[in-house]
Amino acid sequence: MKPKILIVDDEPDICRALEFLLKGEDYAVSSAVSGEAAIEKLKTESFDVVLTDMKMGKVDGMTVLEKARGISLDTMVIMMTAFASVESAVEAMKRGAADYIVKPFLNEEIKLTIRKVIEQKKLITENIALKQQISQHIACKDFVANSESMLRIVETLEKVVPTKSNLLLLGESGTGKGLLAEVIHCNSPRRDKPFISINCSAIPEGLLESELFGYKKGAFTGAVSDKLGLITLAHHGTLFLDEIGDMPVNLQAKLLKVLETGEVYPLGDTRHKSVDLRIISATNTDIEDRMKNGRFREDLYWRLNVIEIKVPPLRERKDDMEMLAKHFAAKSAEEQKKQIKGIDKQALALLFEYSWPGNVRELGNVIERAVVLAEGNYITANELPDKIKSIISGKEPMETSSNLRAYLSGHEKGLLLKVYNAHNKSKEETAKTLGIDIATLYRKFKKYGIEE
Predict the structure, then answer these.
(1) Which of 201, 214, 235, 360 has its CA 20 to 30 A from that of 227?
(2) What is the rounded (10 degree) CA torsion for 378, 347, 407, 291?
(3) Could you tell me if 172 and 359 are in contact, meaning their C-beta atoms sit under 8 angstroms apart?
(4) What is the pLDDT of residues 81-133, one digit of tens each?
(5) CA-to-CA distance for 65 and 68, rounded, in angstroms?
(6) The pLDDT value given to residue 292
(7) Do 228 and 216 touch, CB atoms closer than 8 A?
(8) Distance between CA 321 and CA 360 in Å, rounded?
């Protein structure tokens, strides 16, 4: 379909000349000899580009710009102006004009500007289509986001998913790093190939090595047949290494070799298998601190951390709270075959006040519990756990008092000092008792001005 262009100028000769010029470039061209006529055309027809003079009669080019953009944001507007009015044209661009041309102009200049703006419109359209495509895939993976920080992550994904680059996902436990890894895979060119996931902290070191690299028959007692490792099984696909920070150092060296050579050697085998895979890693630990302590290889870190995405905790993206809660409620209601229509205002208010140490995973569990217990059509405060209901009276339940992340932020400093002094000012014991890593403890000490 030919791009449609509307020429607006109160000099009929200019309209006719531009029509002739642009029709010769294979555009569908219309013209209007006043701002009023242009606005009437815009109400009934859609145009890819409006080329309008700045100074006209009662309705000037700025008004045409505002009306065109008001009717359709897809319409690109180019302003034509005399040299003395360039400042006005720049102001028009601030209001949404795509470009401007100074009179008198050359025909080639007009043609080049039109081509540039149409190409710009095409790129915008393709970008919108990509966002819609990604949103559809994200929806199928139950990825719910409304906060600015999470939407920025989605924007980053648009650039990342088509590539082969390895990614490192950082964030607290329960923030959705595993789900994000699946979203990246299912939107990538590898979507039809395997997505293999393993938690490096949940498997003993010896077993982790054989799981990742596989083994040859007879490699050790009990190896009665060949076994393909997960790295080999992920060939042409994606390998998700959850809690990579807990991988033993000797296995880190073997993984680094795979990344450097594209070859994996099963245990007990002298022959390699070639692999092409993308690795997405995740950790809730301070991996840079582990590098400083010699517990994580710096060369491996830079291989894994081509693209870094920090997933914020739920308490820092409360704009997602209501949408996530309603999503979990609808999902659980369907699974439980219950008629749950929503969450009442008091329950929602309590959800917003709670600090969510378990992040999105904890929210999902809380809502599932509430759906099971609900007797009416709405989740109420009565169905929420005591640790959340107690917020309304300003009391904290005893079982959360030893975990800093579960404690309300206003009480953090007092709890820090209390636990720190109770452990004879041992930072390691303080961090362990509070359920946080040592790097987080140092940051909070600095935040509250606590003497070290």
Answers:
(1) 201
(2) 50
(3) yes
(4) 876 566 777 778 778 888 888 888 888 889 999 998 888 887 776 655 544 44
(5) 5
(6) 93
(7) no
(8) 9
Q: Which residues pair with 50 in a beta bridge?
A: 6, 77
Task: Show the 3-state SS of 321-354.
Answer: HHHHHHHHHHHHHHHHCCCCCEECHHHHHHHHHC
How far is it, in rounded angstroms, from Cα 12 to Cα 53?
A: 12
Sequence-distant (6+) residues with CB within 8 A of 123 are none
Q: Answer for the pair 441, 434: CB distance below 8 angstroms, yes or no.
A: yes
Which pLDDT score, from 0 to 100, does residue 289 have?
92
Number of separate helices (H) and strands (E) present in the chain: 19, 16
> Closest Cα partner for 256 from 304, 215, 214?
304
Rounded CA gap, 192 and 188, in Å? 9
DSSP label at residue 267 = B
| Cβ neighbours around 85 below 10 Å, total | 19
Strand order in 307-310's β-sheet?
Answer: 195-199, 238-242, 278-283, 167-170, 307-310
The pLDDT, as a whole number, for residue 236 is 94
Burial of residue 202 (CB within 10 Å: 0-12, 13-18, 19+) is exposed
The domains found in the chain, sorted by start residue, are 4-124 (3.40.50.2300), 141-310 (3.40.50.300), 314-395 (1.10.8.60), 409-448 (1.10.10)
pTM tops 0.85:
no
Residue 366 near residue 388 (C-beta atoms within 8 A): yes
The list of the chain residues with pLDDT below 50 reads 130-140, 393-410
The DSSP symbol for 122 reads H
* b/e per residue 326-338 (b: at least 16 CB within 10 A): bbbbeebbeeeee
C-alpha distances out from residue 165 to 83, 180, 187, 238, 302, Å: 49, 15, 14, 11, 12
- Residue 383's nearest CA partner among 336, 329, 331, 330 is 329
Output Rg (C-alpha) for the chain, integer angstroms: 30
**pLDDT for res 405:** 42
Helix (H) or strand (E) holding 207: helix 205-213
